[in-house]
């Protein structure tokens, strides 16, 4: 599905000349080789005001980025899974304070890393069970193996969980494997990026009685018309040419270099449906998802009633800061990588939330919520400005270039009302 502008930028308070300058700025990323190509969507008041592309979805094949290009959105899957969980919460299927061991018994007696090495770790029992809200806020103590900042993530790698999940393991088995590993900290006492949302996806499966993929398809993708969002692309199908190639910076030149060692997995049906990082989507599809959130839970795009996925009160609740004591991430973060800065930023139920834009020295509005993906994709939703923005490219890791702060700087500079 392609995406095109629906309204002139000036009609919704955006300077078209400055948007053109924004495109020129990021075109230089392609022209000097830092990125292969990109796609940008800016919507205001629920209507697309700017949709642009530049460069190549596949440099080697000479295929340009098109409006319907398929992108690995990686951790931009997390807000989708969080919405799925909160849909079940709205049905009264669980409380946010419930221990997850009620549905996932493998987490009945978690251990917490205390000291020692990866070959001889010493653990202590958790004094607090992992609760549903811990998964939604990344305060569970679960981590990622690829972070390489602690003994615990070394234990994840030792167990076969690095950048990719262990070969052939489904979500149920992965959840059992993670439960057998020590937590990075006592639940609710820190903030650590990790597999919390994948475990949340497993919770969705058990509570709903459906696979995560079936739940997302029937309850979110189909109502929103997200026909292109999926877990993989058929290598023999027509869509394979729509899939952007994956790149990393060359150690020698810094230029985007093809990385099929990881990129090829998008062409294989995964054994594990990763609610934390497994989805492939298009700009048009994800704009439908962010527009639903901006409209506080409804699928309507034209003022009609539409289908309601979430209550407006639930969306507002999800996008408040839920960190213990209402503090910033900077106070609770454990030093590992995350798809966000920490200063002035809180965390809600599935999203980072701007508390104060000044400490990060990046323009925004308090209450803006957002996330990004490992291949440098990113989105944000600013309810006060009635604004949604999403940027797509395929460069690992997302910390390579200051794309996100520059994007905010240029977008907010273009608002005129």
Description:
It is a single chain. With 417 residues, the chain is α+β, with helices and mostly antiparallel strands. Helix content is 28%, strand content 16%. It is built from twelve helices and 14 strands. The model has no long low-confidence stretch (mean pLDDT 96).
Write the layout of secondary structure elements.
Layout: H1 16-31, E1 37-44, E2 47-58, E3 63-64, E4 71-74, H2 77-90, E5 111-116, E6 121-125, H3 132-137, H4 151-158, H5 171-179, H6 196-208, H7 212-224, E7 247-249, E8 256-258, H8 260-263, E9 279-281, H9 283-294, H10 312-318, H11 329-332, E10 345-347, E11 352-354, E12 369-372, E13 378-382, E14 387-392, H12 403-413
Antiparallel strand pairs: 1-2, 1-14, 2-3, 4-9, 5-6, 7-8, 10-11, 11-12, 12-13, 13-14
Helix pairs in contact: 1-12, 2-6, 5-6
GO molecular function, one term: hydrolase activity
Domain Beta-lactamase-related: 22-409
Protein name: Serine hydrolase domain-containing protein
Question: What's the N-to-C terminus distance?
Answer: 31 Å
Count of helical regions = 12
Low-confidence stretches: none
Helicity level: 25-40%
Radius of gyration: 20 Å
Which descriptor suits the 3D outline? globular
- The overall average pLDDT, rounded, is 96
Number of strands: 14
Q: Structural class, please?
A: alpha+beta
Widest β-sheet, arrangement of strands: 3-2-1-14-13-12-11-10
Strand-residue proportion: 15-25%
Q: Helix and strand succession?
A: HEEEEHEEHHHHHEEHEHHHEEEEEH
Q: The biggest beta sheet, please?
A: 8 strands, antiparallel
């Amino acid at each position: 599905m392609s995406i095109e502008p629906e309204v002139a930028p000036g009609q919704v308070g955006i300077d078209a000349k400055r948007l053109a300058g924004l495109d020129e700025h990021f075109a230089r990323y392609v022209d000097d080789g830092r990125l292969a190509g990109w796609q940008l969507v800016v919507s205001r008041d629920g209507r697309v005001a700017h949709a642009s592309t530049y460069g190549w979805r596949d440099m080697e094949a000479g295929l340009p980025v098109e409006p319907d290009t398929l992108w690995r959105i990686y951790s931009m899957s997390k807000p989708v899974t969080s919405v799925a969980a909160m849909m079940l919460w709205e049905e009264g299927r669980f409380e946010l304070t419930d221990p997850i061991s009620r549905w996932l018994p493998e987490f009945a007696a978690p251990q917490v890393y205390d000291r020692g090495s990866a070959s001889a770790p010493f653990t202590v029992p958790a004094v607090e069970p992992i609760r549903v809200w811990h998964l939604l806020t990344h305060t569970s103590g679960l981590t990622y193996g690829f972070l390489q900042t602690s003994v615990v993530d070394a234990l994840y790698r030792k167990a076969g969980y690095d950048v990719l999940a262990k070969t052939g393991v489904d979500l149920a088995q992965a959840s059992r494997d993670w439960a057998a590993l020590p937590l990075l900290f006592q639940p609710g006492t820190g903030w650590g990026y990790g597999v919390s949302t994948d475990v949340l996806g497993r919770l969705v499966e058990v509570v709903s009685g459906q696979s995560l993929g079936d739940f997302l398809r029937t309850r979110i993708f189909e109502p929103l018309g997200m026909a292109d969002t999926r877990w993989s692309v058929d290598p023999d199908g027509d869509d394979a040419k729509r899939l952007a190639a994956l790149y990393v910076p060359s150690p020698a030149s810094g230029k985007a270099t093809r990385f099929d060692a990881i990129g090829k997995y998008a062409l294989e049906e995964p054994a594990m449906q990763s609610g934390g990082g497994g989805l492939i989507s298009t700009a048009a599809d994800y704009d439908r998802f962010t527009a639903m959130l901006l409209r506080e839970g409804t699928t309507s795009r034209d003022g009609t009633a539409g289908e309601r996925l979430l209550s407006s009160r639930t969306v507002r609740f999800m996008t408040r800061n839920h960190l213990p004591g209402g503090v910033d991430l900077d106070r609770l973060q454990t030093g590992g990588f995350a798809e966000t800065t920490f200063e002035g930023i809180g965390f809600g139920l599935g999203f980072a939330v701007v508390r104060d834009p000044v400490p990060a020295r990046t323009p925004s509005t308090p209450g803006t919520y957002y996330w990004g993906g490992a291949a440098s994709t990113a989105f944000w939703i600013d309810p006060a400005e009635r604004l949604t923005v999403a940027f797509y490219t395929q460069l690992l890791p997302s910390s390579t270039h200051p794309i996100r702060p520059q994007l905010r700087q240029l977008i907010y500079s273009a608002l005129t009302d």
